Amino acid sequence: MNKYGSNLFGYEILYVATNEIELNEKEKEFIILFDSRNNEKGYNIAPGGTGGNMWEGITPEERAIRIEKQITNQVKSYSIERKAKLSENMKKMRADKEKSKKNRDIHSERMKIYNKNPNVKRHCTPVLCVENNQIFKSIKKLSLHLNMNIQIVQYYLTKIDPIIKGLHYKKLR
Fold first, then answer.
1. Residue (of 154, 159, 155, 160) closest to 141 by Cα position
2. Domain count, the chain
3. DSSP label at 146?
4. What torsion do the CA atoms of 66, 68, 71, 77 make, to the nearest 10 degrees?
5. 51: which of 38, 42, 78, 134 lies 20 to 30 Å off by Cα?
6. In the prediction, which pLDDT does 128 show?
7. Longest dimension (CA), the chain
8. Of residues 2, 1, 34, the one with CA closest to residue 15
């Protein structure tokens, strides 16, 4: 609704559930009934209920389309109006000095905790390109080389035989 504007959406009560479990099941049924995971018919990316796996029940072709859309959405430029609105919101946030300081302090504390955690993976895994034996020091370096979002590259590398842009890659650790 944020993307398209709430005025473009209507609502209608389709079912009244008596508890949360029933509500989640009906949500899943309606998503299937209205085929709302289909980009041309609806806006759901997950099967419903309590969130769910957005990759569940879709074909590899649909998966590739969604990944490509995610990539293109991350590099798109905003309209002048959107930039102005974002700028105005940032000015409002910065105007409240007390809230701004509090947010910085919270972020600083979170980063201290994050950086102290030895179990945090920081994209430091070296990756080998099988075809040309090129070794990338990290997933981040590979993502920069491929000009792809790091999360997308990580996703591909979780596959049994990861192929990215026609080449096979292998994590070395």
1. 154
2. 3
3. H
4. -100
5. 78
6. 92
7. 60
8. 34
Predicted confidence band at 135 (pLDDT cuts at 50, 70, 90)?
Answer: very high
Token code pair at residue 169: 């890659």
Tally of residues, the chain: 173
Two tokens at 93?
């946030």
Q: Are 127 and 142 in contact (CB under 8 A)?
A: yes
Domain extent at residue 99 = 80-116
- The model's pTM is 0.36
Residue 132 covered by a domain: yes
pLDDT tens-digit series, residues 10-42: 778 888 888 878 888 888 888 888 888 777 787
Least-confidence region, from 43-47, 111-115, 117-121: 117-121
Going by the DSSP 8-state scheme, the letter that residue 127 receives in this structure is E
Residue with tokens 């650790």: 173
